[in-house]
Amino acid sequence: MIPSITYEDIIRVIRRNLINYLGIDNNRVLNADSVRGTDLTKIINDSESTSYNLNDLFIVFRLKEDDSEKYVILKEEDGTMSSISSFEWIMNIYGNACHSFSQSLLTLFKEENFLNSIRENGVYIKEVKAPRFMNEFINNTMWARCDISITIQVRFSNEELSNEGYIENYFDPAFIIRKVK
Hints:
This protein is an alpha+beta fold. The chain has helices at residues 7-22, 98-108, 112-120, 159-164, 173-180; strands at 29-31, 41-45, 48-51, 58-65, 72-75, 81-94, 123-128, 132-138, 141-157.
């Protein structure tokens, strides 16, 4: 059976494996949901940080539901409910070396040990799109930027739905009132 995973675990699994396999500092792989403009700084030591410069390489990623894919709800043999969902993992890679680094990423996403490591944790890569190269003007500086998008598939366990029966029960007002009490 495909291992079950949570949304937060998807982020942890992919981020941790990127850091491990690429040997990049964990402060250079940033979640776009938790970093904003002036917060985008590199850590020098425990008490100091500074802005990134063009020679620095860093990744800002985000995870979003893939609107183009359908999801499937399954009733497992043991009676639990689960869903198979697709997400898009989008990486914006900044810095003068982003072009060659993005090629390394493409190679990594075909590497067997990397793929096995994320599969063991319930993340399956369905598609890796070719990088898009562009320049982005940020704070009066022109940054080289490369974007890579990966379509992944995961299985979510919906045990709370399984305990009371089918999903339709959650749309019955009397059932909802009983659950709240």
